[in-house]
Structure formats: C-alpha cells, structure tokens
Amino acid sequence: AVRLSALMRQKVVYVYTHDSIGLGEDGPTHQPIEHASMLRLTPNLMVWRPADSVETAVAWQESILTQSPSALLLSRQTLPAYERDEEQLSQVSRGGYVLQYEQAECDGILIATGSEVAIAIDAAQALLADGVHVRVVSMPCVKRFLAQDVSYRDHVLSPDIDVRVAVEAGSSSGWYQFVGTQGRVIGIDRFGFSAPCQQVYEACGITVAAVTQAIKDCLQQKLVAQ
Fold it and tell me: Quick check: helix, strand or coil at residue 24?
C-alpha cells in the first residue's frame, strides 16, 4: 500500500508510532530498526522522524502540503522539547538544520534524528566540558534536506568540517553519505533486544558516551593524519 501510494503520488499520511528500540520489552519483533531506511528508499515518499512536538507539527503541516505520501515515524519515549529562534523554526521544513551550535570555532558536527537528537545534545554538552565544540544538526527528513540548494546544505553541513558523527537507532547504511570518509555512524545493523528501553540503548551502543568517544576518535585520527 505504501509503495503503490508513492507510485501514484497519492496524498496519504502514514503515522507510525513506537519506532525503533525504544519499545524496550516488546523485543526485536516490534523494533523496526530497518524500516526507516527502507521507507527513505521509496521514491516520492517523504519520511519524517521528528525529535519533538515542534518538528512533529512541522512534519504534519508539510505532509498535508506535499502532493505525495508522507510517513511520520514517532517515538514512544518521553523526549525533551527544544527552544528555537525564528530562523531555526523556519528551517525545520527544509529537512535538516542546525539545532545547537557554539560560537567558538567548530571542531565537529553531530547529526541525529528523532529520539537520538537528545543523545546528540547531551553528547555536545559533555564534549564542551572537555573543550570540544560541536554543532548539532537535526535532520527530521533526509529526502527534503537533499532537495535543498547546495548553499543551504553547505550552511548546515559545512564542507570545511570533516569530523562528523551521525547517530540514529536504526540501520547505519544511509548516513555515510553525510559523514564521509573521516566520520562515523552510530547505528544498529542487527535486530534489537527485549529489555527496558535504556538497557536496550546501552546494549546497542546508542549512548552519550559512544557518541562523545566517536567524535574524539575522529579528531584524533585527523590529528594523526596531519
């Protein structure tokens, strides 16, 4: 049904709840770690994985305005809400934008979607305590972001910053296009576990510690290469 609606460009909105490993005790049969990538590969289908209520509202609005089907991948977890200025609010609909940045020179970029945006924000704060400045990019809709002009994409993902880490509790395959050869992807390329939510995240390596270490490893690798 999803594929046919995309083929015919029908204005259908698919709302998927309980996404990824946050289901916890429901186990791997109910943890669709591969489905976000599968849906993103479908032509004409706009896939939104929002981080909070603001991104969800924008995703719904954009889905109504788009003359093709859309899928909203929503989390079961309680997630924090983020403050945004007017510029950031206007950029949510562009699929990817800088949610948090430091005024100092940027050492790296963290890219995240959905529930993992919170992990990226916490990792950025932990890195700042160690003197490492990173930009956090929320990318609720990959396909919409890729449709933007080059100047905007370069504004969000500066070509001068090759230390990049993408984090999503799902298949890692689609994120290498953004992190390049110098970056890392923290994802899940296996089925999940049946355990409380936080324990599943720990077991799958989707943690603040893993993200901060990945940035540090990339910086160290860059230093050695120089």
Answer: helix
CA dist 126 and 211 (Å) reads 10
Q: What is the pLDDT of residue 178?
A: 97
Calpha distance 150→189 (Å, rounded): 30
Q: How many residues does the chain have?
A: 226
5, 43, 157 from 11: Cα distances, Å: 8, 14, 31
What confidence tier does 22 reach under pLDDT thresholds 50, 70, 90? Answer: confident
Work out the pLDDT band at 165, boundaries 50, 70, 90.
very high
Specify the pairing of strand 97-100 against strand 164-167.
unpaired
Residue-by-residue DSSP string for 29-85:
GG--TTHHHHHHTSTT-EEE--SSHHHHHHHHHHHHHSSS-EEEE--SS--------
**Residues paired with residue 184 on neighbouring β-strands, in sequence order:** 165
Closest listed residue to residue 161, CA positions, set 175, 174, 179: 179
How far is CA 44 from each of CA 50, 60, 67, 131, rounded to the nearest angstrom?
A: 19, 16, 9, 43
Q: How confident is the model at residue 224 (pLDDT cuts 50, 70, 90)?
A: confident
Q: What single-letter amino acid sits at 55?
A: E
> What is the Cα Rg of the chain in Å?
17
- Measure the CA–CA gap between 169 and 34, rounded to whole angstroms: 9
DSSP string, 91-160: HGGGS-EEEE--SSPP-EEEEE-TTHHHHHHHHHHHHHHTT--EEEEE-S-HHHHHTS-HHHHHHHS-TT
